Amino acid sequence: MIDVAEAITRAHQEEWARVVASLARRFGDLDIAEEAAAEAFTVAVERWPLDGVPPNPGAWLTTTANRRAIDRIRRESKRDDKQKEAVAMHDDTPHEPLGAIEDDRLRLLFTCCHPALAPEARIALTLRMVGGLTVPEISKAFLVQETTMGQRITRAKNKIKAAHIPYRVPEETDLPERVTGVLAVLFLVFNEGYLSSGGHENAVRGDLTGEAIRLTRLVRALIPEDGEVAGLLALMLLIEARRTARVSATGELVRLDEQDRGAWDLALIAEGHALVRERLAVVANGGPRPGRYQILAAINAVHTSVRDARDTDWSQIVALYDQMLRVDASPIVRLNRAIAIAELDGPEVALAEIDRHLGPSLDEYHALHATRADLLRRLGRSGESRAAYDRALELAENSAEVALLTRRRDQLGPS
Prior knowledge:
about 425 residues; Rna Polymerase Sigma Factor, Chain: A
């Protein structure tokens, strides 16, 4: 017997983006698409327990949502205007070339991540329109008032309408740059779940990391040949595999070298490693050089390929960071490379590199001071280490990180 509640939940996860995207393309209005999709699921909650789950839930929901959208347009007595808007926004007319890839969900995702929108608006709109999260869920995830988040989403939708941002996948020549923007949004969502900011009660948010992975899988299915999409998915999987081992029972962040590797999710690791090997094979056969996400995935593959942290191949990790610097020479990449250098050449070499190159640029970044504190601790410079821990604690926001830094500082003994 079919569990109706489970069927509705599964349909929401699998079909929400498809229904909203289909309506957005037809009517050229995100408000109509969102409201009609929500109404269709409300009808499903009412009807499916009585009538049974339809053979094709997605088609049933799309048909119901379309009817609701048309009813709304009629009620508002604006049918002609809305139809004109839909034609103006529709990108399937003969005089306008089609995008490189045709899928309504991908159209919607590119629209939500359009560079004309502010970054925070792209995240909120993507989670609402593509992910199907409610405004309360999104506001709770990012510690923003519901009214503020609702206004943010409304402004983003109004901007799309006012700027006549089309519901389409970019042309092939523009696709790489626009895909980069989409991946950046998905990675921001994942990172907020991976290490929650702003003092959230949960230091690690599995709901957000899971949603980011689900959406990245969608993009991967739609653009399977894109190396950076595969790289980001692999990176997320390899990080997510360690989630249950990242926070102790007392709520303290557990460093990678101290984690219980037996608690890691081996299925996710195997999937992530397979994606990394796939991309390495493409490069070996003359394919394009790996980008940022592919290199980060390779670094995480090295970390997760050994069952004991002492067996980590730090020379390979340093080499990968050297490769990364050619793609992204940001201070944070240099900091992470210095952490690897400390394992390969010792803490003194790493500390000298950090103090020589990174101090001013990352002074407001808590991880810089936490790293310095650890290196100074290993060099026996306890007073300087304590001061660095104090500075890191001033800047840290994640509760699990604060707990770890506090314990390690207090282990140094009295100042």
